[in-house]
């Protein structure tokens, strides 16, 4: 069974990006979360776009594993948008930085 990815959830941990909880919540999942100017600690959201790039192996694997874990059925052959919480964005940026250092 596949689940549709909702941009109101973090792609890799499924934290609600409206109320910032990992628990099941009653937030409206049809409303796209918005960034605020001065967020509280841990309540920043990061919109990202995946573009196929074979050189970023660790960063891509981070997304592939979330896709498999939550059964999003995302198509990694074409660009698509997703959203991270601050914790997952930090993990992704570290992995992406390691991949870039390996290339150069």
UniProtKB/TrEMBL annotation:
It comes from the Eukaryota. This is Uncharacterized protein.
């Amino acid at each position: 069974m596949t689940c549709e990815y909702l941009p109101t959830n973090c792609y890799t941990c499924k934290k609600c990006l409206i109320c910032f909880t990992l628990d099941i919540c009653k937030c409206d999942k049809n409303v796209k979360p918005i960034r605020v100017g001065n967020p509280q600690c841990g309540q920043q959201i990061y919109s990202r776009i995946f573009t196929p790039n074979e050189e970023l192996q660790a960063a891509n694997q981070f997304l592939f594993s979330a896709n498999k874990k939550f059964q999003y059925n995302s198509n990694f052959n074409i660009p698509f948008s997703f959203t991270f919480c601050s914790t997952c964005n930090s993990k992704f940026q570290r992995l992406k930085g390691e991949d870039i250092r390996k290339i150069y």
